[in-house]
Amino acid sequence: MELFRGLVVISLLVIILLQNSSNVQGRYHYHKTKNKSHNKAESPVSPAPDNVPEPQDPSVPSSPVNPPQIPSDPYPNDPAGNSSSDCIFDVTSYGAVGDGSTDDTSAFVAAWKAACAVESGVVLAPEGYVFMITSTIFSGPCKPGLVFQVDGCLMPPDGPDSWPEKDSRKQWLVFYRLNDMTFTGKGTIEGNGEKWWDLPCKPHRGPDGEASKGPCDSPALIRFFMSSNLVISNLRIQNSPQFHMKFDGCEGVLIQQLSISSPKLSPNTDGIHIENTKTVGIYNSLISNGDDCISIGTGCSDVDIEGVTCGPSHGISIGSLGVHNSQACVSNIKVSNAIIRDSDNGVRIKTWQGGTGSVSGISFQNIQMENVRNCMIIDQYYCMSKECLNQTSAVYVTDISYRNIKGTYDVRTPPIHFACSDTVPCTNITLSEVELLPEEGELIDDPFCWNAYGTEETVTIPPLNCLRDGEPESEGEVASYGC
């Protein structure tokens, strides 16, 4: 009997031990699942029981309220915690008022200097505020990963009368000598351009397209100068006094998901202008303005433009090039999957008489035209007045392809216009699946070609009977114009 009682006691002890072991294992699984929901960067392999992670302290923030998303960054949720709140420099903490009238320039400069000195620093202009700052140069070099994040509204003084006399009238925000910087946010850059457009010296365009008066100084809204590895994304940029965004002397630029807008008749308000800049991607953006949607100046190469919607505007332009007998070099430009609507031009190459250099390796493909004048234009007689003279030298235009260009055109001008230099012909122009129909009415003039050589791989609509076959006899001579 005593032996039986002993066995019962032992059995009860074993059962209790097994139950306690089961409860411990259950608690471990609970902690593991909870932690996984808060840490997406955790390895999918379950940790060993000895390495059960400690519960997170809810009082310690793991990331900023509006963490910057860098499109080119393959690790936007950095497990190392480089986007901690210690790296965010809120301009309101440096004295910015954000009431739309107080000058907040000094606060932005102070926040910039602090962010510039640390890796992955963030200058934050928070939402719910309207910050006014004067013409400012934000210069480097800075530590890598710097972010300028505008979630509120940022704007310059309201018009030329409010512009400080000591400030440059040619530019407002300048980013200079930077590497690995991002300009982003969900806010708005408001240019306050209307009073600049109304200056009597500005070239005003009437409804009939006629222009009057010459140019005068007005600030470009945003300028990147001598910088590399830049990302510009998500912002709304509007009503610039002159160019909305300008890149000069840069390399490695990613622009995506921007909204750029100004009125149709606002003078000289190019959306994005690049010059002396290489390796550029412009993607998935909406641009409507009073001048070129995107303009590409001399010294540009390896530019990829895709998924852009333009209009109203002056279209996507290469040039103008070769002004004042200068040398211009542009190569390897691709425009694809774009929409151009209600614009004075579609895709354009424009050069001045007397220039040298070359435009080569240009591809326009999969472009939808909607009520566009001059859908496809090469103009080697570009001139801002009637005083320009014909000259013997010219920028050499070669290796230009137009593929799958379809839609409608404004019948006031022919949809295709290839006016090449008398002495330096355009060569190796290729057309395939070009079908352009009148938006309304009938075509007044046939497509125009002058000294243009190339090939139609399919029948062009309307017929392009003026394109010359083969190569010009002077092909060897024009090769010397290359860059």
Automatic annotation (TrEMBL):
Region called Disordered, residue ranges: 32-82
Keyword Secreted recorded: yes
Pfam families: Glyco_hydro_28 (PF00295)
Keyword Signal: yes
Active site: 314
Single annotated GO MF: polygalacturonase activity
Protein name: Polygalacturonase
